Amino acid sequence: MLINFLTIATILGTGILGLPVTIAHAGLVPFLVSFLVGFFVQALLIYLFVELLQKCQVVQLESLKTGVAECIVMDQVGVEDPAPTEEEDEDESENAEADTGLLQPDALALHQQADSLQPNLHLLGRLFLSRPMSHAFNCILLFQFISIGISYVLAGSEAYAALLNIRHIYVIPAFTWILTPAILLAHTVIQPITSLLTLLKGILLIVTVAVTFAVGSEVGLQSSSDFSQMGKPFLMGTVALGGIVNVMPLLFSQISHNKTQILWFRRAVLGGLTTCTVLNILWCWAVLEIVPQTSLPERRMAAETTTQPDYSSPSGPPSSVVPHLYSNISLE
To answer: Where is this region: Disordered (predicted)?
Structure first.
């Protein structure tokens, strides 16, 4: 359940608010086609990435066993001892139990090291890519995480600045230097809190979608579809469903690596992806029910004519009544 909520928190935090703007010209049906294609590609990527994480862990275990076996062989290799005397035989018999007891801590240490072996993105590049491609992969990861961090800092700072009615430039340092040490030092505490906040965010989004559908049924807008514009929402759709692969190694390290746990891990991640897909589709559908797709030319003309002063009127100076500009609001 924790993995499912963390998956939703990772995916749902990017792209959902800007997604309806990209379907202004495409409409609902072309958006559904492109978005569902992105969903199936992401689902296939999750399935294959779980297999890759398992292979990475197997390689780590084999490397650990090989290293332990080499150490044991090197300990056994030595100069052949001369024939033992009676005193040496007695010493060996007395220390036989101690010698066998020393193997148990080694086995325990091996088991603990095996449990501590966890795949990560850097290790995946080293194991399955050539040396030049591995360095390029690390550079791509570095720039990717930097860009993700910058986008989250800017988005979070602007949101808090809007609530506090101050400039976001003053919120960025506090937002960064408070949350970054909190994530690094209180990681185990923040994860359950993130799951709870994700549940609340999902409930609020569902309520918002329901209210929007209710208001949209009273407005009665009709949306149009244009398949020639289907590519416009595709890029934002990949952003809205992407990002989970970046945190899957971390989530994978929190489960017991047996067949049942890995199976449920894959199901939890795919379930989170499906939940985010449904919420994104409902959100875009609800917005189309209440906001026009494009600004109609006659609306523009009506707004322009209402703003022009009528000097031929004998009633005196032009009226200061604000025209109804809201009639020209659209996703465009």
So the answer is: 301-332
DSSP 40-63: HHHHHHHHHHHHHHHHHHHHHHHH
> E strands, 149-303, where?
none
Contact 142, 121 (CB under 8 A): no
The tens digit of pLDDT for each residue in 73-104 reads: 555 555 444 555 555 455 555 444 444 444 44
Each domain of the chain, given as residue ranges in start order, spans: 2-71+190-291
Q: ∠ at Cα 293 (216, 11), nearest 5°?
A: 80
CA distance 111 to 104: 11
The rounded distance, in Å, linking the Cα atoms of 302 and 13 is 39
Distance in Å from the first CA to the final CA of the chain: 39
19: nearest Cα among 193, 169, 238: 238
Q: What is the pTM of this model?
A: 0.71
Q: How many Å apart are CA 236 and CA 121, to the nearest integer? A: 24
Q: pLDDT (tens digit, 9 = 90+) per residue, 130-185?
A: 999 999 999 999 998 888 888 888 888 888 888 888 888 888 988 888 888 888 88
